[in-house]
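Form 7-S
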Amino acid sequence: MAVCITAMVAIFTLLIIRHSIFDTSKSPMSPHVAVLDLYGVIYSSSTFIKETEHLEQTKQCKAVVIRINSPGGVVAPSQEIYEAIRSLDKKIPVIISMGSLSASGGYYAALGGRKIFANPGTLTASIGVIMELMNTERLLEWAKVERFAIKSGKLKDIGSPTRKMLPEEKAFLQSLLNDVHNQFRATVKERRKLTDEELEQTADGRVMTGSQAKQAKLVDVLGGYQDAVKEAKKMAGLPDSAPVIVKEPSQGLLKNLLLGDPEEESRWDHLFNSIKNGLSTLFSSAQWRILYLSPIQ
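Output:
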């Protein structure tokens, strides 16, 4: 009997702790500014979009500061996050606060905000697209390993690491990257109101500091996180004393490993896919991304 009571108390305590740690649906009854983080390499957009949708439905949330620390990532999720931020900004002011790194896909996402703040030393821009491949043909020959592909379309094994790339294949991939780059450029030109000449001077993949980006009209204000929060309160018509609510990531590491996302996959599938994605980052020979400036430490 004592064991059963102890077990029930332990389970009840764990449920309370879980609720207090992981419940991010609570918000104050008074008007406030919410802070949402966009951190790390962008592989997926679903979690971030859910957060923005939740903020849209929170009546007392009058403005949002999105703090970005990201080197970029996969193209389509970066575009989806940009659209989510832009949609949210149509309802309440969204201010972007760039941290140490907000480049490429991170900068693409930032374009959805109403005003962009960057520190003078922030690394940003990197308006370009890259696809990396490798040729292991000679290595396989040295190891006396023969590999071949059976395919039904002539471009089905394009980018294969086991053979040299044909000129027409390289031209095809280049046209693909050019198309994605043009989409990126068009968004930058529209959102930052740049001339063709100004765009050409900035959209060649170069990395810029926050100061350089300000001169190039890629950001609006040189300032830090607190400056962005003050601006958000001002745009929302809130007093300086208005509360600032930092949204906890709805998929922190502990929650990822233990609970997963019930709307997307089982917890074990989620754990397996998290490990798989991490390994693919290290070992994949061909990765689509807008640009990784540096590994995430």
